[in-house]
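Late entry, evening session. Most of the bench is empty. Finally got around to the prediction I had been postponing all week. Sequence below, unchanged from the version circulated by S.P.
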Amino acid sequence: MAIARVNGTSLSYELLGPESAPVLVLCNGILMNAATSWALQVPALSRQHRLLLHDCRGQGQSAHPDEPYSMAGHAADLVALLDALGIERAHIGGISYGGEVAQAFGIAYRDRTRSLILADTVSEVGAELRRVIDDWIAAARTSDADTLFETTVGWNFSPAFIAAHGALMADARRRYRDLDFPAVIRLCESFLAVNFTARLAGVKVPTCLIYGEADRLKGLRYAEIIRRAMPHAELHVLPGAGHASCWELPGDFNRIVLAFLARQPD
């Protein structure tokens, strides 16, 4: 991973794929990082596209400044990173928290956005989802990795996936030990301020929505809110997949993304 100085902070990023290909940005979920989030997407998507993976401030190998984070701030960091890399326009994608970053980018920087790919994400936060994230914040305040893992894992993966992937779950549990718990809290607080629905109608770029059918955290009810706000958006549902749909059904996820991008003009 390389490091770029933007907006007074340091962002970790990686560029993969053909240098002359259209750029596709992929933004991570709240508890993930660029080094691992997209491992099942990179081989397929980097053949025809220039992938830009990066950690938002507060995530992974990027700086974790002790200050409030915001979706607008993440979007401003991303556009500054694109400027630093000489990238004029890009397809902007993300899952969960990364999908909210992508929405913020599309709203603020429409002329820099070729299309949006929004997976398992929300444009507003309902009362039940707010209670879940409040529980995550309380778990993060314990600074205990196992407590945070047990609090979050059932929301991030379907029961069938958890049962079938013990080694992956054990690896995720170990990864939680590396989390910066105060930064996780700031990221959660940033998420709780999401309120984009009324502004989505002004985002006219082609938009692809991908949701796990069994996503209990940010599921199909939220997909329908976005689709009503963006009538041109296309919705794809991955059967049986939970919130981390790019991990649970990576082949289907990649196929949908590639087919969508293939229909976009150069």
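Two things to note before I forget:
The radius of gyration is 17 Å.
The longest strand covers residues 9-16.
Will write this up properly tomorrow.
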